[in-house]
């Protein structure tokens, strides 16, 4: 979200992807990798999607720019049908920023698509906080699902009745909106104007009088069967019936020491307005910061990144991601693969 982050984020994310990928030889699969180029019919925007998936074809060292990674690029997908998970990154971030979660999902038999939201990423963040960005983000998710399912070579390996979304920060908003959440920017305006000490990243446009007050009636994608929300933007769903159309299992993770989003205006709003509380797992990650949900960076370059690589004192991001990734995989196993007999228990957070 911060401008100084964007300068070095591209370099760092590929470095981290290299370090993580070189370590990973899955119990049953290698990690397959394809890049898909997509154009949304509704927004007319083109953007790439990184697709990772289970494969039986051995990996090899490949170069991405100046970096080498151990992946099975372009490999065939392993036999069988797998659930599909789409990961929506936060504002100004990268589609590879949650690769630790994506890799764990592949390990557990999932295909994962990671779109780079156009004009709201580390390369180009010109749309951050704009009305068009709030409208377009959920449409990027729909376009990603449509494109993946229109490719028969991929479709033949996907269980189309088992699709889930993982979203961080603005990606959490995106997940809810794609599932049918009714957003309203008037709540952002009221929050920023009535709370001058609030430092939410999207308040800048409000203070410049550049964000119009508008309702966004998102048409829910019924193909989406489950959500994971990590430190999500929730203020746009403050209207009483904003989430009345969402009736699917949702795993909500708050950051106890979120330095970007202020409670009770974000996750609390979502929890309060979620109608079917039996389908909501609402928990808080002790001592976590807003960016703690991003895949850990090497110690050697944390200083260059600033806030995006920093966690509250005493928080171990590397250890957390081992548990977080497992929790998310187990959650989807329960609600998509119906392994309910094992019983889901979140280990990465304290249930509220």
Automatic annotation (TrEMBL):
Residues 1-21 form the signal peptide. The keyword Hydrolase applies. GO terms for biological process: lipid catabolic process. SUPFAM superfamilies: alpha/beta-Hydrolases (SSF53474). GO terms for molecular function: 1-alkyl-2-acetylglycerophosphocholine esterase activity. Keywords: Hydrolase, Lipid degradation, Lipid metabolism, Signal. InterPro entries: AB_hydrolase_fold, Chlorophyllase-like, UCP031982_abhydr. This is Dienelactone hydrolase. It comes from Phocoenobacter skyensis. The lineage of its organism: Bacteria, Pseudomonadati, Pseudomonadota, Gammaproteobacteria, Pasteurellales.
């Amino acid at each position: 979200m911060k401008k100084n982050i964007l300068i070095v984020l591209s370099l760092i994310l590929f470095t981290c992807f290299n370090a993580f990928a070189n370590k990973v030889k899955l119990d049953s699969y290698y990690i397959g990798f394809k890049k898909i180029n997509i154009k949304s019919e509704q927004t007319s925007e083109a953007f790439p999607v990184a697709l990772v998936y289970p494969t039986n074809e051995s990996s090899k060292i490949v170069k991405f720019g100046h970096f080498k990674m151990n992946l099975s690029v372009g490999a065939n997908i392993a036999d069988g049908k797998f659930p599909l998970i789409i990961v929506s990154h936060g504002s100004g971030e990268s589609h590879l920023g949650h690769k630790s979660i994506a890799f764990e999902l592949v390990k557990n038999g999932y295909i994962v698509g990671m779109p780079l939201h156009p004009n709201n990423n580390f390369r180009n963040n010109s749309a951050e906080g704009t009305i068009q960005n709030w409208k377009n983000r959920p449409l990027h998710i729909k376009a990603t699902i449509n494109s993946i399912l229109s490719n028969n070579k991929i479709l033949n390996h996907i269980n189309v009745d088992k699709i889930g979304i993982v979203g961080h920060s603005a990606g959490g908003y995106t997940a809810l909106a794609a599932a049918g959440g009714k957003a309203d920017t008037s709540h952002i305006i009221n929050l920023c104007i009535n709370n001058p000490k609030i430092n939410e990243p999207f308040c800048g446009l409000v203070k410049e009088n550049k964000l119009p007050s508008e309702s966004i009636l998102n048409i829910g994608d019924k193909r989406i069967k489950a959500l994971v929300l990590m430190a999500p933007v929730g203020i746009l769903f403050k209207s009483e019936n904003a989430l009345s159309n969402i009736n699917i299992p949702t795993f909500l993770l708050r950051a106890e020491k979120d330095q970007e989003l202020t409670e009770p205006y974000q996750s609390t709003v979502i929890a309060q307005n979620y109608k079917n509380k039996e389908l909501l797992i609402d928990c808080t990650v002790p001592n976590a910061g807003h960016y703690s949900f991003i895949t850990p960076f090497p110690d050697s370059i944390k200083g260059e990144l600033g806030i995006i690589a920093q966690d509250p004192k005493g928080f171990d991001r590397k250890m957390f991601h081992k548990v977080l990734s497992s929790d998310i995989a187990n959650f989807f196993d329960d609600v998509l693969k119906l392994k309910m007999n094992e019983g889901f228990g979140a280990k990465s957070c304290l249930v509220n």
